[in-house]
Amino acid sequence: QVQLVESGGGLVQAGGSLRLSCAASGRTFTRYAMGWFRQAPGKEREFVASISRIGFSMYYADSVKGRFTISMDNAKNTVYLQMNSLKAEDTAVYYCAVDVSAVRTMGIPDYWGQGTQVTVSS
Q1: How far apart are CA 115 and CA 36, in angstroms?
Q2: Are 36 and 92 in contact (CB under 8 A)?
Q3: Is the Cβ–Cβ distance between 19 and 83 less than 8 Å?
Protein backbone atom coordinates (compact mmCIF):
# COMPACT_ATOMS: atom_id res chain seq x y z
CA GLN A 1 0.00 0.00 0.00
CA VAL A 2 0.98 3.61 -0.62
CA GLN A 3 -0.35 6.58 1.30
CA LEU A 4 -0.41 10.04 -0.28
CA VAL A 5 -0.97 13.14 1.81
CA GLU A 6 -1.48 16.49 0.09
CA SER A 7 -1.06 19.93 1.61
CA GLY A 8 -0.80 23.54 0.51
CA GLY A 9 -4.25 24.29 -0.85
CA GLY A 10 -6.16 27.41 0.06
CA LEU A 11 -7.74 30.63 -1.13
CA VAL A 12 -5.79 33.00 -3.34
CA GLN A 13 -6.60 35.95 -5.56
CA ALA A 14 -6.33 35.69 -9.32
CA GLY A 15 -2.74 36.22 -10.41
CA GLY A 16 -1.40 34.80 -7.16
CA SER A 17 0.59 31.65 -6.42
CA LEU A 18 0.29 28.49 -4.36
CA ARG A 19 2.51 25.46 -3.89
CA LEU A 20 1.01 22.05 -3.32
CA SER A 21 2.95 19.22 -1.71
CA CYS A 22 2.28 15.49 -1.74
CA ALA A 23 4.19 13.20 0.59
CA ALA A 24 4.22 9.48 -0.18
CA SER A 25 4.75 6.70 2.35
CA GLY A 26 4.42 2.94 2.50
CA ARG A 27 5.78 0.59 -0.14
CA THR A 28 8.71 1.76 -2.21
CA PHE A 29 9.16 1.29 -5.94
CA THR A 30 12.13 1.70 -8.23
CA ARG A 31 10.13 3.22 -11.05
CA TYR A 32 6.95 5.23 -10.90
CA ALA A 33 5.35 8.49 -11.92
CA MET A 34 3.62 10.90 -9.60
CA GLY A 35 1.24 13.55 -10.69
CA TRP A 36 -1.62 15.90 -10.02
CA PHE A 37 -5.20 15.80 -11.19
CA ARG A 38 -8.01 18.22 -10.43
CA GLN A 39 -11.78 18.18 -10.34
CA ALA A 40 -13.93 21.28 -10.48
CA PRO A 41 -17.60 21.23 -9.40
CA GLY A 42 -19.74 19.56 -12.03
CA LYS A 43 -16.76 18.51 -14.12
CA GLU A 44 -14.79 15.33 -14.60
CA ARG A 45 -11.42 14.83 -12.99
CA GLU A 46 -8.65 15.96 -15.33
CA PHE A 47 -4.91 15.51 -15.61
CA VAL A 48 -2.77 18.49 -14.60
CA ALA A 49 0.88 17.40 -14.52
CA SER A 50 3.13 14.41 -13.90
CA ILE A 51 6.78 13.62 -13.31
CA SER A 52 8.64 10.31 -13.52
CA ARG A 53 11.17 9.08 -11.01
CA ILE A 54 13.46 7.86 -13.81
CA GLY A 55 14.69 10.78 -15.85
CA PHE A 56 12.30 13.26 -14.23
CA SER A 57 10.21 13.42 -17.40
CA MET A 58 7.52 16.07 -16.94
CA TYR A 59 4.19 16.45 -18.69
CA TYR A 60 1.58 19.19 -18.40
CA ALA A 61 -1.97 19.82 -19.49
CA ASP A 62 -2.13 22.57 -22.10
CA SER A 63 -4.23 24.68 -19.75
CA VAL A 64 -1.42 24.99 -17.20
CA LYS A 65 1.72 25.03 -19.36
CA GLY A 66 3.92 27.99 -18.58
CA ARG A 67 2.13 28.63 -15.27
CA PHE A 68 2.53 25.43 -13.25
CA THR A 69 5.75 23.56 -12.48
CA ILE A 70 5.95 20.04 -11.10
CA SER A 71 9.02 18.81 -9.24
CA MET A 72 10.07 15.83 -7.16
CA ASP A 73 12.33 15.31 -4.16
CA ASN A 74 13.19 11.61 -4.17
CA ALA A 75 14.91 11.79 -0.78
CA LYS A 76 11.66 13.00 0.79
CA ASN A 77 9.32 10.96 -1.45
CA THR A 78 7.52 14.19 -2.13
CA VAL A 79 6.17 15.83 -5.26
CA TYR A 80 5.38 19.52 -5.54
CA LEU A 81 3.18 21.60 -7.80
CA GLN A 82 4.12 25.26 -8.00
CA MET A 83 1.15 27.18 -9.36
CA ASN A 84 1.69 30.73 -10.59
CA SER A 85 -0.56 33.23 -12.36
CA LEU A 86 -3.60 31.45 -11.00
CA LYS A 87 -6.94 31.97 -12.69
CA ALA A 88 -10.49 31.52 -11.46
CA GLU A 89 -10.80 28.48 -13.73
CA ASP A 90 -8.03 26.77 -11.76
CA THR A 91 -10.44 26.45 -8.84
CA ALA A 92 -10.83 22.76 -8.05
CA VAL A 93 -9.96 19.97 -5.67
CA TYR A 94 -6.43 18.88 -6.52
CA TYR A 95 -5.52 15.23 -6.11
CA CYS A 96 -2.08 13.69 -5.92
CA ALA A 97 -1.68 10.30 -7.60
CA VAL A 98 0.96 7.69 -8.32
CA ASP A 99 1.34 5.12 -11.09
CA VAL A 100 3.69 2.48 -9.69
CA SER A 101 4.51 0.87 -13.04
CA ALA A 102 5.18 4.00 -15.09
CA VAL A 103 8.56 4.55 -16.71
CA ARG A 104 8.03 8.09 -18.03
CA THR A 105 4.40 8.87 -18.71
CA MET A 106 1.67 8.42 -16.15
CA GLY A 107 -1.03 5.88 -16.91
CA ILE A 108 -4.04 5.10 -14.77
CA PRO A 109 -3.02 5.87 -11.18
CA ASP A 110 -2.83 3.08 -8.65
CA TYR A 111 -3.15 5.30 -5.59
CA TRP A 112 -4.80 8.64 -4.84
CA GLY A 113 -4.53 11.23 -2.12
CA GLN A 114 -7.53 12.66 -0.34
CA GLY A 115 -7.45 15.94 -2.24
CA THR A 116 -6.83 19.56 -1.31
CA GLN A 117 -9.06 22.49 -2.22
CA VAL A 118 -7.68 25.35 -4.30
CA THR A 119 -9.93 28.37 -4.69
CA VAL A 120 -8.97 31.32 -6.87
CA SER A 121 -11.04 34.45 -6.44
CA SER A 122 -11.44 36.78 -9.40
Answers
A1: 10
A2: no
A3: yes
Q: What SS3 state is found at 24? A: strand
Summarize pLDDT for 31-88 with one digit per residue, the tens: 889 999 999 999 999 999 999 988 889 999 999 999 999 999 988 999 999 999 999 9
Amino acid in position 44: E
Across the strands, what pairs with 11?
119
Cα distances from 90 to residues 6, 18, 79, in angstroms, run 17, 11, 19
Q: Which of 54, 42, 37, 63 is nearest to 116 (CA)?
A: 37
User: Sheet of 18-26: strands edge to edge?
Assistant: 2-7, 18-26, 78-83, 68-73
Amino acid at residue number 55: G
CA separation for the pair 17, 56 (Å, rounded): 23
